[in-house]
Amino acid sequence: MPQRLHQTFRRAKDNPVTETIPAPTHPLAYRDYRFFWIARFSAVLATMGIVVVLGYQFYDVARTDYGMSIKEASFQLGLLGLAQFVPLAVLTPVAGWVADRFDRRYVAMLANMIDASVALTLAFMTANDALTLPLLYIMAALHGVARVFVGPSMSSIVPNIVPPNVLPRAIAFNSMAWQTGTVIGPGIGGILFGVIPALPYFLAAALLILASLAVAQIKPLPKVEIKGTAHPFRQMIDGLHYTWNERFLLGAITLDLFAVLLAGATALLPVYARDILMVGPEGLGWLRGAPAAGATLMALWFSFRPLQHNVGVKMLWAVVVFGLATIVFGLSKNYWLSLGAMSVLGAADMLSVYVRSSLVQLNTPDDMRGRVSAVSSLAISGSNELGELQSGFAAALLGPVGAVVFGGVGAIFVTALWAKLFPELKNAKTFEPQFRKTTQ
Question: Is 292 exposed, middle or buried (0-12, 13-18, 19+ CB in 10 A)?
Fold first, then answer.
């Protein structure tokens, strides 16, 4: 027995077994991701506070100072959405190229500081009772400029600070930051606005500065080298070509674009809060936050139980539920039923966003990630801002209730049509790269 033990120890010494510690599978275990999460949460909290107060102030100024009717003011709300969308439409290719060409941390920091200056301007103008519709249009446009650069730069950072196998869970936590901020931001904004109207903007400015400081703590990212020597304009267009040639990504992105564009009920929330549900700015804050409450619960579920099977079919059904919840909200005259419908709407939207975001990040090479993320951000923001424009036009023709119901029916119709046009959606089973084609 002693001889056998000696031989065993000798074999172990001559052939040591190297034990490797497995990498963490939770995104919060990574230092840089923690700073990223703080930055994202702070920026979203600030942005949502700005948006909800800006929309209410705009509608109130139109009704009170300019003497507009409900339909006229609703139409102006649609134009406010257009003012935010135009910078997105014009600058999205530039923002994606900038995110691939320069340090993504610095791009995000600068964009957040521009948004902080917008918040401070609105704070001082509100405190001095100097708001006008032209000024609010200008501030909305500058806010759009800031957000168009934040989107691709921030979303492109994540794949560089967590391993690929952790990325779907990290995306779920990204969505939690977004949705939690969307829940809390409007509520805080509405409450503070009821106390001192300028307070939400001062808080937003402070949070955006905090977001910039958190991004500054992230370690330098690997330098991205854009392949080829094409002209910068051509490099900007390459992101559009890549998305166009990936049928699954094209179908998923455009499905979300058109469904949300038609069912843009959030644009008319000030109308519902002031003239239909009669709940004022405080009630508007919670109505605006209700979709995010449902989305946060869904994101929390995915952060512990990531979606793995039949992702395409589940995304399609989520958009159908999104449309049905929009219809219920449009017809409801009960505040609590409206809150419930908006919560279901947000949970369904979260599932769709989770699937699409995971596929975009996992199907895109790093040297094109900024440009492809810009295309995705354009679809998301475009559906929101153009959805506000569509809702304003529809409300002017059909009234606010008719406009919301029409949008919900349209979202369901688009889902059925896209399932037919893009069979890749319902056939997709997992998040593995789908139907890759070589881009030219």
Answer: buried
